[in-house]
Amino acid sequence: MKKGIIAFLLACVALLLGGCWDKLELEEQAFVVVLGLDKAPDGLVSVTFQVANPQVGSSDKGAAQNEPPSDIVTFAAPDILSAKEIANSVITRKISFAHLRTIVISQAFASSKLFNHVIGSSIRDPEMRRETNLIISRERASEFITRNKPRLETRPHKYYAFMQERWRDTGYVPFSTLNRYFQRLGRDTLFLSIYGTTKRVKTKYAREEDQYLAGEIPQQNGDPVQIMGSAVFKSGRMVGTITGEETRIALFLRRKSMAHSYISSYPDPLNPDYQVTARVIKDGNTRIKMDLSRERPDVQVTLPLRAQILSIPSFTDYAEDPRKQEKLRKSIEDSLKAKIDAFIAKIQQTYECEPFLWHLVARKHFWTLKAYQAYDWGAHFSKAKINVTIRMRIESFGKQIGPPLPLEIEEDQAG
């Protein structure tokens, strides 16, 4: 009896220890933190690996004082997984995607038919997580990764992690991951991806701060990378771009959005030479009603918003005058509605598809998926009659109720 118990215990121990046969120590692995994809000749893809140096930026940095924070290598291969194997012929450690959170794709490659095949086949590797962020670069991805040398972040993965949090705060770019890309591959909707660049494009100064694309922001010094606006995908291929302002509108018109507020400036209705800065907050879900019984669908959208006035450079006393408050509220509301109507018209004429996820609402009007597919929502959306109603209320005017006195009045009172 005792021998049987001992044999059973030994068998259990053997089973527990058997799981360590494929273990690898940390120093035996090379963790890829950023992946780049570019077009290559003969139908190949150029894959760039940015491999992090775990010693730089850690408590063990004394042993790596003269080592760079990462190593960047590029290979041409049929797909990502074969490039990963080729990389092991140069990099002595085993390549791992366990910490990969960012994929940079060049605009030229994202616009090609090959892109969807390459990115679709990559998820067969269990290390390729669907939460990985997608960034579309104006230039080649290898150039984007090489030139991105942030001054305040030593470790490259931390830079992208912190920037992602800021993107969600501002709403200048969408929340784009591999999973969302695969969800929106159909003809019914457009997929919006983060758009960035390290190159500058000469452009005129915009009166409002969000009317730029990446590379157009007037910047002096600082990090070379600019992130602004979205790359637009239709049926798995990039077909255009939209600005930071248009990206904010697209996110707000969705029934639910991850960006709940943003700060923007609007014309001062009582003094057109100045702008009024406000934080616009989404006050609940966007309400969408559709009538699909006609050939030209009727779509009624209600967008509930509240505004916090942050800055009034004209010194107009809006806080204590209800009539002026109403003029300001109506001015912001009308300005925003005009931008929304123009953007919707642009989407209908240019893409014949929508990035607002309204197809999820349209789908509920059909009993079967086959009936919905036969309806062809994309074709009907392009000719739909869309009316957007904004319901905005001004919530506050900041901590200081009264505006500061103009400079000449202050001088008179001081005298």
Automatic annotation (TrEMBL):
Keyword entries, A-Z: Germination, Lipoprotein, Membrane, Palmitate, Signal
Pfam family, one: Spore_GerAC_N
Regions crossing the membrane: none
Residue ranges of domain Spore germination protein N-terminal in the record: 22-188
Primary location class: membrane
GO cellular component terms attached to this protein's record: membrane
Signal peptide start and end residues: none
Subcellular location: Membrane
InterPro entries for this protein: GerAC_N, Spore_GerAC-like, Spore_GerAC-like_C, Spore_GerAC_C_sf
Membrane topology classification: Lipid-anchor
Stored PROSITE patterns: PROKAR_LIPOPROTEIN
Annotated Spore germination GerAC-like C-terminal domain residues: 228-398
One BP annotation, GO: spore germination
Family: Belongs to the GerABKC lipoprotein family.
Protein name per Swiss-Prot or TrEMBL: Ger(X)C family germination protein
